Amino acid sequence: MELDAVSIEQKDQQDQLAHLRQHFSLPEGVIYLDGNSLGALPSNVSAVLQNAVEEQWGQSLIKGWNCHNWIDLPSRVGNRIAKLVGADEGTLICADSTSLNVFKVLATAIKLRPDRKVILSDTGNFPTDLYMAQGLKELVSDEIELRLVAPEDVEDALDETVAVMMITEVDYRTGRKHDMKALTQKAHSVGALALWDLCHSAGAFPVHLKEAKADFAVGCSYKYLNGGPGAPAFVYVAPKHQGSSGNPLTGWMGHNAPFAFDLGYAPSVKTDQMRVGTPQVLAMTALNAALDVFDHTTLEALQAKSIELSELFISEIQRRCPGLELASPTDPLKRGSQVSFSHEHGYPIMQALIDRGVIGDFRAPNIIRFGFAPLYLSFADVLKAAEIIEEVIAGNLWDKPQYHQKSKVT
Predict the structure, then answer these.
(1) Which residues are catalytically annotated?
(2) Cis peptide before 279, with omega less than 30 degrees from 0?
(3) Share of the chain above pLDDT 90, in %
(4) What is the C-alpha separation between 281 and 65, in angstroms, rounded?
(5) Does 262 count as an annotated binding residue?
(6) Domains in the chain, ordered, with CATH?
(7) Residue 3 has what pLDDT?
(8) 3-class DSSP string for the chain
(9) Which residues are modified to N6-(pyridoxal phosphate)lysine (predicted)?
(10) pLDDT value at position 156?
(11) How far apart are CA 310 and CA 333, in angstroms?
(12) Average pLDDT, whole number, for the chain?
């Protein structure tokens, strides 16, 4: 879809979601295409955090746990996220990190299927999920097997030996999207449980945990949910599993009565069983404020705009930069809200783009990624980004020593 600047301006004027951009603080001269790594700063967060620090903490001190209801932040924020991933109230809490939540849920799933020892995942899964499975194996039993197959082979690999299928819905490198409902149905047909990682899904497009009958889900809140760097993660437990806690991290906040201070551990029979320690009040307060923007739109509308933005981007890049190879599915319904290209010099290309105000990121060995957050991206942003990418590629502007020097974070 080749469009000129006038046509793009008209599209932005007709965009029903354009007003959402005002809810974010974005630096001048930057086209931010990395919301799939870290969301932009919602404009209401700074004032909310200032109040939480100076008024709630500063003035209320320890009373804040009751008078500001800090203690229930995991549930309150969790219920707001639940609406965005198709889950019922009371089935999802905000807690800890994605990695810790993966570990808790895998241990629970293995406990629920004691006669099975296989954790099935795919080679496109985010490495931390695999690392946590490996750590569980080393800690618990050498009998546990982490079985990895190609993403397209997951369905065929599901059999009666699998205890739990652990899949990230959207491949972090390519944006390839798994069919949650179909794979969960197949897992259940062979007696396996289904754990879904929603890090690249939540807040980007409609997710239907309840409809898909997922057993468990985890995810982070600092990408499309815009919760901020290091924002707390979330964990979902289907109602049928809430009375069967297998969480090995038996911290006091997962206790059925934490302030009874019993010497023995008695797990909560609700999703609170997945809580461990004291909630991160300031971080959850920031996340809670960040979620306000979702009250002004629907995930269906966000997905529709995401598809338009990404289709425009792909068309422009393929026309302008034939040396970049599309690494994402061509069908927009089979990818998340990101587009990836491969190039042997992907890292220096991305550094040159960042230096010119187009921020995406790089994933080894050769992937440059661009995330599309419809809450704050315009069609003009996409067209301008394509123009700058063309300049960098066509002029070999990436081939400078400073762009080849790798930073710790890529």
Answers:
(1) 126, 197, 222-223, 369
(2) no
(3) 94
(4) 9
(5) no
(6) 5-32+297-404 (3.90.1150.10), 49-295 (3.40.640.10)
(7) 67
(8) CCCCHHHHHHHHHHCCCHHHHHHEECCCCCEECCCCCCCCEECCHHHHHHHHHHHHHHHHHHHHHHHCCHHHHHHHHHHHHHHHCCCCCCCEEECCCHHHHHHHHHHHHHHHCCCCCEEEEECCCCHHHHHHHHHHHHHHCCCCEEEEECHHHHHHHCCCCEEEEEEECECCCCCEECCHHHHHHHHHHCCCEEEEECCCCCCCCCCCHHHHCCCEEEECCCCCCCCCCCCCCEEEECHHHCCCCCCCCCCHHHECCHHHCCCCCCECCCHHHHCCCCCCHHHHHHHHHHHHHHHHCCHHHHHHHHHHHHHHHHHHHHHHCCCCEECCCCCHHHECCEEEEECCCHHHHHHHHHHCCEECEEECCCEEEEECCCCCCCHHHHHHHHHHHHHHHHCCCCCCHHHHCCCCCC
(9) 223
(10) 98
(11) 11
(12) 96
Distance CA 279, CA 277 (A): 6
Task: Give the C-alpha separation, 295 to 392, whole Å.
Answer: 39
d(CA 49, CA 56): 10
Q: Known binder of ligand: residue 108? A: no
Instruction: Please give the single-letter amino acid code of residue 174.
Output: T
The pLDDT tens digits of the residues spanning 58-104 come to 999 999 999 999 999 999 999 999 999 999 999 999 999 999 999 99
Q: Is 126 among the annotated ligand-binding positions? A: yes
Q: Among 48-62, 79-93, 131-145, which is the least confidently predicted range?
A: 131-145
1 has pLDDT over 60: no
297 is in an annotated binding site: no
